[in-house]
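Researcher: Next entry in the queue.
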Amino acid sequence: MKKKEKTLRLEISVKPRSKFPGIDKSNPDRWVIGIKEPAIEGRANEAIRALIASEFGVSKSSVEIIIGMRSKHKVIRIHGK
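Model: Structure for this entry, 81 residues:
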């Protein structure tokens, strides 16, 4: 029997070039993520994936941006163990 993989869907808002990087979880429906990287050439998206992977203790490849690749509002899917 195959084990079912756990997934989590997360809505976020992004603040690129933030002076205060980190995750604001005060709104459980949409986290606000501040990152230092600019929204140029995918650098912000890579930083978001790395930060969320670190937060959930999974690899960066387990974090997928499913909606909003070019938007400040994104939907993330996290594949767990």
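Model: The CA atoms of residues 14 and 31 lie 9 Å apart.
Researcher: Noted, moving on.
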